[in-house]
Amino acid sequence: MTPEQIAGVLKCSKAKISRIESGHVGIRRLDLGIALDHYGVSDTAYRERLEELARTAKNRGLVQSYGDGIPSAYVDFIDLESDSRYIRTWQPMLIPGLLQTEAYTRAVLDANPASIRLGDIEQFVKIRADRKQVLTGDQPVRFSAIVWEPVLHCAFGGPEQHREQLRHLVEMGQLPNVTIQVVPLSAGATAGSSGAFVLFSFEDSPTPGAVFLESLTSSHYLEDPSGLDDYVMVYDSLRSSALNPDRSLTTIAEIAAM
After folding, report:
1. What's residue 190's pLDDT?
2. pTM recorded for the entire structure
């Protein structure tokens, strides 16, 4: 089977299959069982041996610690995030997930009636908080976020929680591996009208390996090089329209002080 075919079976991205095959990440026992069924592997002893390996293999941490109850699309996103060396995101509606406080995350979920489909909301909030280790661990990912100015004025959770979130943004923006830029309203029309997206690069080069797109009811991973180039071009255009990082943090701090 091709990577595309088995990715369809496991309902994940082709990039995830490639990383499993190359040994960069492990495989969940649930996914392993589905794959073995699809491959027609019926030898009980052999299956048990593989499942034991999957259970005891060194794991990069977050996904297996929460078991198999996490939605598959979210598992794939966490895997991409954990494997990346460089993440770039454009967010015209919300603070990027890795930069959210727990109060902000909870307020966003409470405001969205569709969030009930995520299952255990408190678990989701905890997972999002734990994901932040990619920014502060021993080998932190390079993270670049561009947000639209109205995001900074939308008070999810009330005034005090809003100020706390903005102060947290300023604090995170001072990390050496984190860059935050704001596209001001004064910039007028921008290239970001196509909506939010996240670019994942798995090498030291900024060349992306996947882009994540999300709608209300589904998520999509684009891995075609020509399509990825388009998103890089849009991101670079947005960065040109944005305030520089220092001015962006000053603007965020000024809004927090209002």
Report:
1. 87
2. 0.78
